[in-house]
Amino acid sequence: MKITINDTMFKKEMKSIIDYSVGFLDGINSGKTIFLNNMGKMTAEMLKEYIDSNARVNPKALHHIYEWYKVGSPDARLYDINYTISNLGLSFVSTLKQSTSIKDGSSVPFYNKAKIMEEGTPVTIKPKKADVLVFEDGGETVFTKGKVVIQSPGGTATTGSFQKVVDTFFTKYFTQAFLSSSGILQYFNNPTVYSKNLSAGKKAGKPKGFQVGYRWIANAGIN
After folding, report:
1. What pLDDT is attached to residue 169?
2. Which pLDDT tens digit goes with each residue over 94-140?
3. What are phi and psi for residue 5, nearest 5 degrees?
């Protein structure tokens, strides 16, 4: 029995497959910025909803990152979540904003309340125009001529609680629930588009691979 192998055709087909594969990887690299941007938007919004949900369950710990009397309300947030894209990937940064609402019994906003209560910074209160300072303490009206130092203006439960809930989101919820429930994990573990387009890739080579890879990564996470 004599077997004849068309070596030229085999080499040509293998080169096309390699070119298609290289193009696929190049397309992924080129389109990853779009994916990271989509992922950043989706994750930031999910994180905000996660914080709001935790605040409604535990207002004692997270009331300080909302306007007065609106704990857990999206339109009363005193925090924001932003993201940046770099060569290292996706990074998230949280910031605390100024309060504009006024607490009952006060005449001006507690401007830095989110930051002060989160960091547990003591607050000194003293008469500004009058000779006597009047304030409520435990349901009783207190009069004093001297200054008053409040060691934990938001209560000890607020100190570091915002940072803690953000850390919990990324170390537990994001990896254990979000990636799986969103379908992103399965999407990356099963890149079927590569094999589905292999026949076309053998003919078109690198350009086809680039197109397939770019679309695959750019559409990741979009339902």
Report:
1. 92
2. 999 999 999 887 778 888 899 999 998 887 766 666 666 666 555 56
3. -110, 125
For residue 134, being part of any structural domain is answered with no
Question: What are 3-57's pLDDT values in tens digits?
Answer: 555 567 767 788 888 999 999 999 999 999 998 998 899 889 999 999 999 999 9
Under 8 Å between Cβ of 72 and 48: no
* H runs (alpha helix) in 58-111: 59-62
Q: Are 97 and 78 in contact (CB under 8 A)?
A: yes
Cα 26 to Cα 34: distance, rounded to the nearest angstrom? 14
> H or E stretch including 124?
strand 123-125
Examine the domain organization and report whether 43 and 90 are in the same domain.
yes
In a domain, residue 145? The reply is no
For residues 103 and 213, membership in a common domain is answered with: no
Task: Specify whether 69 is located in the same domain as 174.
Answer: yes
The verdict on 162 and 221 lying in the same domain is no
CB 217 within 8 A of CB 34: yes
- Does residue 9 form part of some domain? no
Tell me the whole-structure pTM to 2 decimals: 0.76
Domain that holds residue 89: 29-119+158-180
SS3 105: coil
